[in-house]
Design a protein that fits this description.
This protein is about 30% helix and about 20% strand. The chain is α/β, with parallel strands linked by helices. The chain is globular. The relative contact order is 0.18. The model has no long low-confidence stretch (mean pLDDT about 95). The structure holds 3-methylcatechol and fe (iii) ion. The site of fe (iii) ion has 5 residues, from strand 9. 3-methylcatechol binds next to helix 5.
């Protein structure tokens, strides 16, 4: 059975929820009461305002209630929040950065991927489908000085748009890896180009998309966390010039600085691109 036949919203949602719980623990810790009061009050009053402006009916209120219950049942809170909310959180969080441009993390990062130094190939299947792709560059400080021992933590969907550990039938660390820069601050990551990602249509997020007449697609993208001692970690994504949905990402996470324009690889096989990261001081 192929991944396409067996991937379900509830399956990937369950894994995304579990992954988030591992990172976060279970509850809020140490959030200031005055801050909760101010933010929760504003969220609620924004909702009250929407209800008044649109004259929400009881039928619509009950449809909303049913849908919210389903988001939880399908494990799709991580997906929902990261697709429709996170881009603004990221915008606020990274507003003062001078170096590499960030964007949203999304629900599918898993820490602890296999590591290599300098140059390596991401874990992949023997017959991994897709265009071979070399992603290379240098990690520097804001003055362009190379940073040795920086880490480029890399994850992506495969050529069918599926993530290992969130869709069934894919080896655990497929297309996930951590490249540590060598003494010259460079990294060379051999992989394959990912396909666009479609929000699953059999879960609550898909139901919202369908009911509203939206489209469910994210453009093909690479995910990265780039870090070095004494520097701020940057979480970002990179996209492909001219690719489908680059100008119409359902998650609104594309920025002009994040669009790659790969060229035929010097090796003669597949494509390659060079992209550098300048890290802000911590
Ligand atoms: C993804 O692959 C992703 O990166 C985000 C942000 C949301 C859903 C799926
Ligand atoms: Fe993604």
């Amino acid at each position: 059975m192929s991944t396409t036949e067996t991937a379900t919203a509830a399956g990937s949602g369950r894994n995304a929820t579990e992954t988030f719980r591992k990172k976060q623990g279970t509850g809020a810790t140490g959030v200031d009461q005055a801050r909760v009061d101010a933010v929760a009050r504003d969220v609620l009053s924004a909702m009250h305002d929407v209800i008044r402006r649109h004259r929400l009916t009881y039928a619509e209120y009950d449809a909303l209630k049913a849908w919210l219950i389903r988001v939880g049942e399908d494990g799709e809170w991580p997906l929902f929040l990261d697709v429709w909310i996170e881009h603004v959180v990221e915008e606020v969080a990274n507003a003062d950065r001078k170096g590499a441009v960030g964007t949203i993390e999304g629900p599918y990062y898993v820490p602890g991927a296999p590591e290599f130094t300098g140059e390596g190939t991401l874990p992949m299947r023997e017959d991994e489908p897709g265009t071979p792709f070399l992603f290379q560059g240098t990690v520097t400080d804001l003055d362009g000085n190379p940073l040795a021992g920086a880490t480029v933590d890399f994850w992506q969907a495969d050529d069918a748009g599926f993530y290992s550990q969130f869709a069934p039938g894919i080896p655990e660390w497929n297309l996930r890896g951590v490249c540590r820069t060598g003494d010259d601050g460079t990294f060379k990551i051999h992989t394959v180009k990912p396909a666009p990602y479609m929000i699953p249509h059999d879960g609550a997020c898909g139901a919202l998309i369908e009911a509203a007449g939206w489209h469910p697609w994210r453009p093909a993208h690479l995910h990265l966390k780039v870090a070095a001692p004494g520097r701020q970690l940057i979480t970002t994504q990179l996209y492909f010039a001219g690719g489908d949905y680059v100008t119409d990402d359902v998650a609104q996470a594309v920025k002009p600085e994040l669009i790659l324009d790969p060229v035929p690889a010097a090796s003669g096989t597949g494509e390659e691109v060079t992209y550098d990261f300048a890290l802000d001081p911590a």
